[in-house]
């Protein structure tokens, strides 16, 4: 199937629109174009002289990690390594990258196969990873074309300003860590977890866990593993004991 019109479109006005949105003018637009070519598109268009974006994605991931690590080191001089690692993990997550990419509208510029485009536009789980990877490829392209200083500027305008909200809302924490910090802060003790029941064959286990604060059970959860049951118990405790609704889907 011939997608040459799509390619021509990206080469012309749409490349200019991408640059307007990100506030960066590329010296070599071919590098920018490559950031938006998904492997599936080339599978349907093998005659086209294009490269997919996976190598740029690899580069962008490493460049972003270095820039974010340096930013957190400078910005949080009194924060211990363990907490910085948690914050780094959240700010470099697929969910965070997807949020930025969606706000910039990068998905509309992606070159995908017809089938992949239908899946992408339906909003399924695969969309998160495809568009998050596209942001990383874009960062790689910016680095190659304009250097690390321009990458820093791009991140200062997109991801870095969210740090304050991430810390204030403790968005970097999972439910167990959030509960532990809350209990320690308000009551000066550490919650513990107890397995109440464990049922089922090895291939289909079912756990019920309670979380204990002092001499009180403050939450319970179930799941196919002890870890997942504990996470659910922590969410239950946060809601019942502290009126905090914890969600795995967090935006900032």
Automatic annotation (TrEMBL):
It holds the Pfam family dsrm. It comes from the Bacteria. Transmembrane segments: none annotated. GO terms for cellular component: cytoplasm. Keywords: Cytoplasm, Endonuclease, Hydrolase, Magnesium, Metal-binding, mRNA processing, Nuclease, RNA-binding, rRNA processing, rRNA-binding, tRNA processing. Its EC number is 3.1.26.3. Its cofactor is Mg(2+). The active site is at 61, 136. Gene3D superfamilies: 3.30.160.20, Ribonuclease III domain. One of its GO terms (molecular function) is metal ion binding. The keyword Protein transport does not apply. Residues 15-147 form the RNase III domain. Mg(2+) binds at residues 57, 133, 136. Residues 174-243 form the DRBM domain. It is found in: Cytoplasm. It catalyses: Endonucleolytic cleavage to 5'-phosphomonoester. One of its GO terms (biological process) is rRNA processing. Digests double-stranded RNA. Involved in the processing of primary rRNA transcript to yield the immediate precursors to the large and small rRNAs (23S and 16S). Processes some mRNAs, and tRNAs when they are encoded in the rRNA operon. Processes pre-crRNA and tracrRNA of type II CRISPR loci if present in the organism. Belongs to the ribonuclease III family. HAMAP family: RNase_III. Homodimer. This is Ribonuclease 3. It comes from Candidatus Yanofskybacteria bacterium RIFCSPLOWO2_02_FULL_47_9b. The gene is rnc.
């Amino acid at each position: 199937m011939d997608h040459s019109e799509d390619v021509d479109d990206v080469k012309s006005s749409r490349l200019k629109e991408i640059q307007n949105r990100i506030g960066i003018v590329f010296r070599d637009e071919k590098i920018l174009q490559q950031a938006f070519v998904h492997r599936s598109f080339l599978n349907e268009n093998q005659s086209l002289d294009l490269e997919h974006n996976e190598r740029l994605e690899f580069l962008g991931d490493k460049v972003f990690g270095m820039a974010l690590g340096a930013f957190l080191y400078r910005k949080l001089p009194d924060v211990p390594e363990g907490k910085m690692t948690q914050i780094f993990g959240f700010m470099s997550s697929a969910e965070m990258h997807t949020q930025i990419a969606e706000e910039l509208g990068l998905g509309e510029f992606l070159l995908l196969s017809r089938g992949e485009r239908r899946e992408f536009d339906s909003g399924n789980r695969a969309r998160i990873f495809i568009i998050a990877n596209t942001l990383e490829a874009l960062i790689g392209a910016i680095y190659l074309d304009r250097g690390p200083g321009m990458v820093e500027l791009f991140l200062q305008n997109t991801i870095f300003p969210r740090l304050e909200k991430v810390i204030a809302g403790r968005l970097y924490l999972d439910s167990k860590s959030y509960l532990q910090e809350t209990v320690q802060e308000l009551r000066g003790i550490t919650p513990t977890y107890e397995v109440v029941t464990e049922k089922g064959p090895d291939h289909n286990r079912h756990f019920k866990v309670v979380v204990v604060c002092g001499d009180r059970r403050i939450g319970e959860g179930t799941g196919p593993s002890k870890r997942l049951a504990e996470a659910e118990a922590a969410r239950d405790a946060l809601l019942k004991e502290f009126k905090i609704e914890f969600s795995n889907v967090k935006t900032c």
